[in-house]
Amino acid sequence: MDATVTQTARPVYVDLDGTLIRTDLLWESLFLLARQFPGDLWRVPLWAAKGKAHLKAKLAERIAFDASLLPYRESVIAELDEARRAGRRVVLATGANERFAAEIAEHLGIFDDVMASTPEVNLTSHRKLERIVAECGEDGFDYYGNSREDLVLLDQAAHAVVVVPDRAAHRWHKSSGSHRIDDEMRRLRPAVKAMRPHQWMKNLLIFVPIALTHEFFNASLLLAGLAAFFSFSFAASAVYILNDLLDLSSDRRHKTKRMRPFASGRVPIPTGLAMAGGLLAVSIAIALLLPWQFGAALAAYMVATTAYSFFLKRMLLIDVLALASLYTVRIVAGGFAAGVESSFWLLTFSGFFFMSLALVKRFTELQDFGTGAERSKTGRGYVDADFETLAQAGMSSGFVSVLVLALYIQSDAVRELYREPYLIWPLCPIVLYIIVRIWVLARRGEMHEDPVVFMLRDWRSQIVIGLGAMMFLLASYF
What we know:
Layout: H1 2-9, E1 12-14, H2 25-36, H3 44-49, H4 52-62, H5 74-85, E2 90-97, H6 98-108, E3 113-117, H7 125-136, E4 142-145, H8 151-156, E5 159-163, H9 167-176, E6 179-181, H10 188-194, H11 208-211, H12 219-246, H13 248-253, H14 269-287, H15 292-310, H16 318-338, H17 344-369, H18 375-378, H19 387-409, H20 412-417, H21 427-444, H22 451-457, H23 459-477
Parallel strand pairs: 1-2, 1-4, 2-3, 4-5, 5-6
């Protein structure tokens, strides 16, 4: 009976970063600053030089923050709620800035009090323990933590709960036999998913200039194409990770993107940064084995995608022009890697065709947000009134690409390459079918992924693409 009374009287203190939420607010704040005020990033080292508490305070002053979007651990919240209903005092004790901590506590509504970092004091480890002991005296306390910095608090707690621990906290848990809350989510599979390997299929465009040479069994060309493919794929994955980190808030507002590895907190932000750096290093190493022109194209792609991630994606129409260019640069890079010149006809067709697909992508994203979609919600330069404009511009661009293809087939360049040009005329209705079908599905609300990836996965598109390839091969050999 006495033990029960003592436990009921003991307050419960819970850490925030990695414990109550599946992320770290300092990293979140840095990427929010990069998204909202990229021009202020140069100030970060100056703020950090004055200490972590000062850095956290300056970030909290500068950025807009929405506590409702954070990935909370529901199992921890459930235990805290149960403790509060039992009459226990529940306190959020965090090293995060006091402004963020107060907003989180107000959002959840389960805390009796909050202790957090101020501009002068970074409330972690021993400083946090001193504050808690000063409040509790000899009555003791319970503590929820997850990291090395929490070890001194876990050691002193009457009842310690280790939540999805890091290595140091895991070792402490094994030796202490404390209560443990584990996350059902594994990190390896989400980490691979964050690289978006399915998007690597876009980089098959690198082989287009090689295919147009009709040298299908030239080993040197194929090896150059493979090296370029993997170089671009690793670079693209690095950019996808960076893009996801910059889009955390807008992804969490989206009904499906909120489950992405970083938005959901399944993969920590530092892990993502390490992955992006490693992928980029491997990409550059492969690029050094290829002609310098390929390296220049890869560098242009990286600059363009970085600019797209930071600001181009929020600019009306500039974003879709940038997306279409990123598809086309893959074709140009493939030509550089193999020493093959990309023709005017190919680049013109590519520009209009991928412009249509980029508009599909924007149309479906806007459609997912539904009526009332605004720039502040979508993170893009479009509102719900733009549905019809995007659809009309997208279909028109697709039709122009078919016209360019038809003019190319009828040109002197084709007569020099093919004895029977009529054999590749079916490419026109094939491309027309692909474009119209994608837009029909988009208008129906049945397009839920990148249209290029959709084409490579959809069996109907696979059939018509296969027919087109067969006609191209027949024309090449006759």
